[in-house]
Amino acid sequence: MRATFMYGAGDVRVEEVPDPTIQAPTDAIVRVVRACVCGSDLHPYHGMQASSEGAPMGHEFLGVVEDPGSDVRTVRKGDFVIGTFAFQDNTCEFCREGFQTSCVNGGWYGAGGVGGAQAEALRVPQADGSLIRVPVSVDSDLLPSLLTLSDVYLTGYHAAHMARVRAGQTVTVIGDGAVGLSAVLAARQRGAERIILMGRHRSRTDLGREWGATDVVPERGEEGLARVMELTGGKGSHVVLEAVGHRPAYETAHGVLRPGGVISRVGVPQYEEAPIGFGSLFGRNATLNGGPAPVRAYIDQVLPDVLEGRIDPGRVFDMTVDLEHVADGYRAMDSRESLKALVAP
Amino acid sequence: MRATFMYGAGDVRVEEVPDPTIQAPTDAIVRVVRACVCGSDLHPYHGMQASSEGAPMGHEFLGVVEDPGSDVRTVRKGDFVIGTFAFQDNTCEFCREGFQTSCVNGGWYGAGGVGGAQAEALRVPQADGSLIRVPVSVDSDLLPSLLTLSDVYLTGYHAAHMARVRAGQTVTVIGDGAVGLSAVLAARQRGAERIILMGRHRSRTDLGREWGATDVVPERGEEGLARVMELTGGKGSHVVLEAVGHRPAYETAHGVLRPGGVISRVGVPQYEEAPIGFGSLFGRNATLNGGPAPVRAYIDQVLPDVLEGRIDPGRVFDMTVDLEHVADGYRAMDSRESLKALVAP
After folding, report:
1. Nearest residue of B to residue A288 by CA position?
2. How near does any CA of chain B get to the CA of A188, in Å?
3. Facing B260 at nearest CB: one of A94, A271, A287
4. I want to staple B102 with a disulfide (CB 3.0 to 4.6 A). Which of A259, A266, B219, B332 is the partner?
5. For residues B216-237, average pLDDT
6. What pLDDT, on a 0 to 100 scale, did the predictor assign at position A122?
7. Is the model's pLDDT at B315 over the cut of 90?
């Protein structure tokens, strides 16, 4: 079959590899119907050291179960499924506490002998915990929105969930990428009164406005910070949803935070150390949280909103490529020509 | 009157100064009945640059209102009161949200022309928000426990409150100082099932055990971390209450945290930057919070527990000095001979 690998910064290749096979009775082989390129894929696309061994790419997918392992109980051959961007058994103690991305039997696609989803097919470990059957046909108009439940929309949702966004609050969203826009939509769904979107790409912030942003701040750094403080009457934002992952975004986040406020991060941090002392978090009783979204915890609850058309998170996709041209999707997202690229193998 | 000043590391002096006077109609002058030395006073006691100008010391007190300003409505001359360790109007937006230490009209004792509480008397700004009348006599046996509501017990309480400690959880408390022991007591009051106290001073950890600690870990660093992980079956602690303020304590905190867990800090951080990336907080969806305790938010609720004898947080005091000998209190706390020194002017 054909599958996508990254060999270094900017070097994405589609190659012929052996078809995936069942390795444990809890595995399932899934034929990929839709995949996509993630904002987090752009981090190695910028910085990966050149390597003779390619890294399998892709972790978001819709597919059809081709071959369920002998212990798989909840999906059958032929079922149309959403795959969560990380796999989990959904039964361990951490899963039951709602943190499936820390599952003791879980893991990440593209690592440890598990392939990626930008491929014709992939092996899904812990299939019972990691595949969710969806009652639609493989050519449904809902595919783009259903695909966002694999990662991007529910990552924005996770940010708002961890921050416990509630009615009447002011929420600042940092980043107008697909996750940032998803965070706007999720904050609106939770009743945020005012949503300040920090981003400078007009076509993106326009979608953000449609999804609930009440204000757009294109300025960055000190200037952006001053603008948000001005918009909030000098008080700052109850909640900041940080959907970028670079340290300047974090610095902005604590700079615009109201006393007692919450910074929820879902942009994968590209830094390890940052300020958390008296002058940044402690002095104002700030809360910092967020992390890899346990989308499995949310998917059952949000699925009806997509199936019944109350939300349309699939609008983040503005480009479609076939698998052979997946590198075009990376390039277009990297140059900001595309917000998010759908892959239709 | 006599009042305490610090002139540099280890240099605490009691000096004659003019009596405090009303400067705003919302002030009150309070005669100090009991004060004490705070663990946070030991930070400048270790590291303050020598200065020709002394810093007024002390921020925890019980007292009697001597002279209420003309706009003060809730206390009268002769009232016996608890003073909160920071002052606040208790009416601004941030106060109403429960973060009185960020009051727009608030501030700290010993700074900006406001004196300290290790003195015969002090001026209390925003007296209506900062003084709480208590229906006991000035020679009540409850004075030590009432004094802890000025800061130390409610700082431990704040840690447990911010972490939302709940029944059935495992809570690790880092630090066997007066705040750490208070955090043990507060976690127990909230129903924590298992409380692991990290501390190495036997007399202190014994009090911790009386107050609810189920396990004591004297080891520090990697060894202490391994011990807590072993005690929790490799899963880590739902909550860590960090009551030290040095960076190694924070490193231990994220090291022993369970996925989805909460680190609540009340030790004033003696560092600004620290790890918060994928390997420390983000990867496991950790929450970090805490800060200066808004004791005003909790005092009405906890006061009955003290007045009716359900808790006895005043047991943290194991030494009493008069005002002239306050430096002995600093010395004894610094050398760990004393857990916390009460000052009876």
Report:
1. B288
2. 22
3. A94
4. A259
5. 97
6. 98
7. yes
Best residue of B229, B289, B298 to probe chain A, by most A CBs closer than 10 Å: B289
| Residue A345 pLDDT class (50, 70, 90 cuts) | confident
Mean pLDDT of A179-204: 97
Q: Lowest-confidence range among A70-74, A299-303, B43-47?
A: B43-47
Of the options 3.90.220.20, 3.20.20.450, 3.40.50.720, 3.40.30.10, the CATH number for the domain spanning A156-290: 3.40.50.720
Q: Domain boundaries in chain B?
A: 2-151+294-343, 156-290
User: Mean pLDDT for chain B?
Assistant: 97
- For residues B339 and B295, what is the distance between their CA atoms, to the nearest angstrom? 21
Write the ipTM: 0.96
β-sheet with A2-8: strand ranges across: A11-16, A2-8, A55-56
Residue B282 has its nearest CB partner, among A93, A98, A269, at: A269
Best CATH choice for the domain A2-151+294-343 from the list 2.10.109.10, 3.90.180.10, 1.10.10.10, 3.40.50.1580: 3.90.180.10
Please say whether the beta carbons of B196 and B172 come within 8 A: yes
No. of helices (H) and no. of strands (E), chain A? 11, 19
Which positions ≥6 away from A130 have C-beta within 8 Å? A83, A84, A87, A88, A90, A124, A296
Chain B CB contacts of A272 under 8 Å are: 275-280
The pLDDT assigned to A39 comes to 92
- A279, A286, A294 ranked by CB distance to B272: nearest: A279
User: How far apart, in whole angstroms, are the C-alpha atoms of residue A229 and residue B148?
Assistant: 36
Contact flag B292-A285 (C-beta cutoff 8 Å) = yes
Q: How far is CA A42 from CA A6, A122, A264, in A?
A: 11, 21, 21
Nearest to A156 by CA among A175, A182, A131: A182
Q: Tell me the per-residue pLDDT of A271-292, one tens digit each, with 9 for 90 and over.
A: 999 999 999 999 999 999 999 9
Q: How far is CA B294 from the centre of its chain?
A: 10
Is the separation of the CB atoms in B201 and B194 below 8 Å? no
Sign (positive or negative) of CA dihedral A4, A6, A9, A13: negative
Phi, psi of A35 (to 5 degrees): -135, -170
Q: Which residues of A are less than 8 Å from B162 in CB distance?
A: 285, 287
Which of B272, B280, B295, B298 would you mutate first to test chain A, the one with the most A CBs within 10 A? Answer: B272
Residue A127 CB-density burial (10 A; 0-12 exposed, 13-18 middle, 19+ buried): buried
* Residue of chain B minimizing CA distance to A101: B284
Q: How far apart are CA A120 and CA B184, in angstroms?
A: 55
Task: Look at residue B55 in the predicted model and tell me its pLDDT.
Answer: 97
Cβ atoms of residues B212 and B188 within 8 Å: yes
pLDDT on residue B345: 86
Nearest to B102 among A265, A269, A285 (CB): A285
**E strand or H helix at A202, and its extent?**
helix A202-210
Q: What is the mean pLDDT of chain A?
A: 97
